[in-house]
Amino acid sequence: MPPKRFSLDEKAEIAKHIDLEQDVPSTPQWRAQERKVVKKLDMTLMPTVWILYLFNYLDRNNIAQARLNSFEEDLGLVGNNFNTAVSILNVGYMLAQLPYNMILTRVRPHLYLPLCAALWSCVSASTAATHSYNGLIAVRFVLGIVEAPFFPGAFYVMSCWYTRKELALRTAVLYSGLVLATAFSGLIAAGVFAGLDGVSGLPGWRWLFILEGAGSFAAAVIAMFVMPDYPESKTGSGKWLFSEEERKFAAGRIARDRVSQPEADRSVWYGLRLAAKDYRTWAFSFLPLGRVIVTHLRLPGFNNFYPSIVKGFHLGSTTKTLLLTAPPYLIGAAVSFLVAYSSDHRKERGFHISVPMAVAMIGFIISVATLNVPARYFASFLYTSGCFSANAMVYTWAASTLNQTPEKRACATAMINLLSQLGNIWSPYFFPASDAPRYTMAMLLMLGFSVISIGCCVVMKMSLRRSNEKLREEAEESGREVVLFTL
């Protein structure tokens, strides 16, 4: 059932209010109302999507920890079987990504996203019942399909509520769910393997899939009662969380924040055409393609091999190895918050992507240049922090640029995320066991594509700067104020 939205008369009243009171945002009353709305969102929407995203990656990447138990032996995996099992999830993910986000603009997110979470929880837990390579491939493919809606869907809902000055930090918070899932997955696995391996005749890796699947299912049920729909919707938690005046205010402030472009048809298919025809959509898609070999080798492709890399440091037992995978991700989360805060405060995106990528490049160079264990472990802090920080900024920048209509924004962000998954399909094959412990090929590829990502940032800033100059010229001719693109 579609969300109950404001009527045409109500939308007209909101538009009238926006047109006639351009100075409202500068008043203390407006700022107080804004703080009230944002606080309610930060107490409901953000914790909900954060917890679900954390479980999204726990359920997706627990295969990496399972590998350090008897996973491969029990399923008879040989050669590149494990790499293929990692890669196949992204095939299903890519096939379902765009259709899911097109549907999202016409359904109730407070039901749609949690139901998808409940489905992926069941599918992930069913991995514990597999006994062969073929069964594992089938489960991983389906898992990709049911997980596909969540990240672009959650980000789209956030972009419908938060303005550009607020979105980068909230995106970093959302992304920290991924970071902490990666960090704590090793700690959780260490506890499960130490305490449950062999209990009821099941190896530890089967218990890992069962317990994490059960946890994410419980979180999905709770999310149905906490997540709001859209500002103009009278469904979800918004019906008790916000008053009618607050919903209109929330819709109005998002309308004010949209870059000054002509209004367009609100149909989903027209939004798709707008996204496909805008060259910036493809530029942003290419930027993650360059970045994703770096960042998505880390997230999630590289994550599937990081425990194995740390194990190659020969720092101790499997439990110690899993524990030592956590610190780089925790530091990466903290750095990404600082970068996102700076980006929102300075209203700048391009340098906040390219500078962290340059830091990541230093880490890749160190990893290739030496086999010294302390140096390589330090390098993992550099490329983890750099890649995580850059990753959150890309989607924030794209959402604020490709926002002519909500449907265009939904389709464009889905297309960018979809194409970025190509890196996840390729990445498992960049880490053959024969390259351990240095993984020279993977590190050099990540280094090269980091350069491409930085180049894309420079090109995008130049393009948006030219567009802003045109908007200023139009503003001088028409005598009206305009909202510019964020550089």
TrEMBL record:
Membrane topology, as annotated, equals: Multi-pass membrane protein
* Alphabetically ordered keywords of this record: Membrane, Transmembrane, Transmembrane helix, Transport
Q: Which Pfam families match?
A: MFS_1
Give the UniProt entry's GO cellular component terms.
Answer: membrane
Whether Transport counts among this entry's keywords is: yes
Q: Domain Major facilitator superfamily (MFS) profile: where?
A: 45-465
**Cellular localization per UniProt:** Membrane
Q: Where are the transmembrane segments?
A: 111-131, 137-161, 173-195, 207-227, 321-341, 353-371, 377-398, 439-460
Task: Give one GO term, molecular function aspect.
Answer: transmembrane transporter activity
Annotated protein name in UniProt: Major facilitator superfamily (MFS) profile domain-containing protein
**UniProt organism field:** Cladophialophora yegresii CBS 114405
